[in-house]
Every structure is written in C-alpha cells, then in structure tokens.
Write a structure and sequence with these properties.
- The structure is a single chain.
- This protein has one domain.
- It is mainly α.
- The chain is globular and about 70 Å long.
- The chain has 17 helices and two strands.
Length: 405
C-alpha cells in the first residue's frame, strides 16, 4: 500500500532541507548561462511536485552538480546546457531500459569517481577565489569575509542552513543598495516557461562537454547512493535502480524543451529533507510549490535581483560547495593505491582539456591494472610460500626418517 502524503509541520520543516544547496547552483547557472529565471524556477518546481507524488518519499530533485559547476566555471551558454540535459537523458534511458545501468555502475571504481569529484571541487574553488570573491574589491572582500564567518558558524546546523541565510543576505544587500523597489514591484507579473528546440550541434557539444563528466557522478551519487539512502532511511519502502534511472531520464527528456536546468535525484537532498523532519512526499511538494510561485509570479522581479546579486556572496557559497566535493576523498585515505589513483584522476580532470572524461578513463584503467598486478603478485607470493612450505616438509620428513630405528 502506498504511503500517505502528509502536509504537517514536520513536512513543512523538511521542505527547507536542501534549499541552501540548490539555490546557489541555480543562481550561478542563471547568471553564467543567461537562463530565463521563470523557466528555470517553474520547471524545477514542477519536477519537485511530480517526484513527491511518484515516490511519496522526501526525495527531491537537484541540479546536476557536475554540469552546474562546469557551466559556472566555463561560462557555457544555455543552448549547450539544454543540449547536455537531453543528451544525458537519452544515455541514461538507454542504460536503464537495457539493464546496463547497474552493470556499468559496478565497473567504475570508487577511487576514479572520488577523483572526478575532487577535480570538480578544485575547479569550483578556483573560480570562487579567482572571479567571485574579489569581484568588487575591498567591499567584496569584506562581504565575502562576513559570509565566510556566517557559513562557518552555522556549519552542520540542520535547523538554520547557512547557505540559505547567505543567499537571503545577499538578496537583501542587493535590494537595499542596487535595486529600485518601484521597478521591482512593477516587474512582478505572471510568467510561463519559454519553449526551446535543442539543435543537434548543441546536443552533441553538451554530450561531450557536460554529459560525459556528469555520467560517472550520476551513476554513483544520483542512482546508487540514492537507492542505498532510501534503503537505510525507509527499509520498508524499497526503490529499484531501474525506477530511479527512469525518472532521472524522463525528467531530463522534458526540461530542455521548456528552459529548465538538467536535474537528478540526490542522496544528500533526501538526507537533508529527512533530517529536517520530512517523511513523505509532502515536504518535496511544498518545496516545489515555493519554486512554482516564484517562477509564475515573481521571477521577472527576481531576475533584477539576480542580475545585481553580489558576486562575493555567491563566491563564498560556491567555495563551500567545493569543500563538500573535496571532502568526499576522505574515504580513500586508508588505501594508498586508491588515494594515489584518485589524486591522479583529479589532477587530470582539473588541468587537461576534456579532463573529466580523460581522468575517468585513466583512473579506471589504473585501478584495474593495479588490481591485476596485485592478483599476480599475490599468486607469485602464494607460489613461493607453497614451495618453501613443501621444502620445509621434505626436510622434516628426512629428519624424521633419520631418527627412526
């Protein structure tokens, strides 16, 4: 029997469990790629509501983090971003329908995925420090310093998300110093998503530049880790990898045509909603409704705020997003071989053209070569041990014979 969707105070509290992560990435993509804010917010909200109704769990929709980081750091256009969403949707749908999704996920070693995440973290940290934090001179440094202190002070606080407060503070600063409130009020008007028809060249470019780097992270984090998190938090309500793969694919088959950003499911967002009190799809539906209202009614006004949003504030949030990605490497620290491969993969991803794809292939190849070498070395060591054991046995037998009468 399907779980009942609730809209009590716990679900309302849970609805804000992931907003501190989503908003900075959405703001960053709107600014970097010149996206239509109404289309982004409306589609993002609709997908949240649909996910809450389909899964009846607090499993939200999140922007694809690798794509978001690359779009923000490389200043890619909206056409390429929408093409990438369609490209990864087709790939994931094919993998899901053929049953290859689980098999492929098992082939990618964790150390290679951690290396890609570390490389993304380095790229994001570099962007935050190089372009955003120092964007407005001394005033920018002061604003960034205050934001950094705020984020550190609220680090780990699930009731008061630092990212949300920082975004609200940045918006308040923009409203107070850079936005004409009269124009802002006049700009509040109904809006609908813009219709787009992705071209093949943008789909192909998006596949090469954004979808390929995103794919290993989606396999590990969006699919496998999400399934495991559901099993941990809701053991009585299992969800298959196939179902997650299907909804992932279908969402990204739809959003590019209406100006939305590519999205996924995420174990971090699920844990955030759960930690705040969400236990049903109600928290996700409430969360999505917030984006819908902003997109349908206030997005034109919001575009004015986003357009003059203080970049040092966004830089601080992006820096903390980078730290989150960098810290995923911790679980490789106990294995020197895996840690070395992860760091080598990260170095390739951070420095080379198409580095995320090259790094993933190189890191995976190094892992399997290391395993093969380890197996062969182990076999040789076992053979030597067996030979020595046999020699000791023969010596012992001869000594026993000599002692016998």
């Amino acid at each position: 029997m399907a779980a009942r969707i609730r809209f009590d105070r716990n679900e309302f509290a849970g609805a804000f469990g992931d907003i501190g992560t989503d908003l900075p990435l959405i703001f960053g993509m709107i600014l970097a790629a010149g996206l239509d804010a109404a289309s982004v917010f409306i589609m993002f909200g609709l997908l949240q509501v649909a996910t809450g109704l389909i899964y009846r769990l607090p499993m939200p929709v999140q922007p694809l983090k690798a794509m978001a980081v690359l779009v923000i750091t490389e200043k890619m256009g909206g056409e390429v971003l929408r093409g990438a969403g369609l490209a990864i949707a087709v790939v994931m749908l094919a993998l899901t329908l053929t049953g290859a999704l689980t098999a492929l996920a098992r082939l990618i070693p964790l150390c290679a995925v951690r290396g890609i995440q570390f490389g993304l973290g380095l790229s994001l940290a570099s962007l935050a420090l190089r372009d955003y934090v120092r964007a407005e001179g001394i005033v920018g440094y002061a604003v960034a310093g205050l934001g950094f202190i705020l984020m550190l002070g609220l680090h780990g606080n699930r009731r008061i998300p630092g990212g949300l407060l920082l975004i609200l503070g940045g918006a308040a600063f923009a409203l107070a110093t850079r936005v004409d409130l009269g124009q802002l009020t006049a700009g509040a008007a109904p809006a609908l998503p813009q219709v787009h028809a992705p071209k093949f060249e943008h789909i192909w470019s998006g596949f090469l530049l954004l979808a390929l780097p995103q794919l290993p992270l989606s396999l590990s984090n969006s699919v496998i880790a999400t399934k495991q998190t559901i099993a941990d938090l809701f053991p009585e309500r299992p969800v298959s990898i196939r179902k997650i793969g299907l909804t992932y694919s279908l969402m990204n088959l739809i959003v590019p045509w209406f100006g939305g950003v590519p999205v996924c499911h995420g174990c971090g967002g699920l844990a955030g909603h759960y930690s705040f009190g969400g236990r049903t799809g109600g928290s996700v539906i409430i969360y999505g409704s917030l984006y819908l209202v902003i997109g349908l009614v206030l997005s034109r006004s919001l575009e004015q705020v986003i357009g003059v949003f203080p970049e040092p504030v966004l830089g601080v949030v992006l820096l903390f997003e980078a730290v989150t990605l960098l810290l995923f490497l911790r679980d490789q620290a106990g294995d020197k071989r895996a840690l070395t491969i992860a760091l080598f993969t990260a170095l390739i991803a951070f420095t080379l053209p198409q580095g995320y794809v090259v790094g993933l292939v190189a890191g995976s190849a190094m892992w399997y070569m290391a395993r093969r070498g380890l197996i062969l070395r182990g076999a040789r060591e076992k053979s030597i041990d067996d030979s020595r054991s046999s020699e000791r046995s023969c010596v012992a037998e001869r000594a026993e014979e000599e002692r016998s009468p």
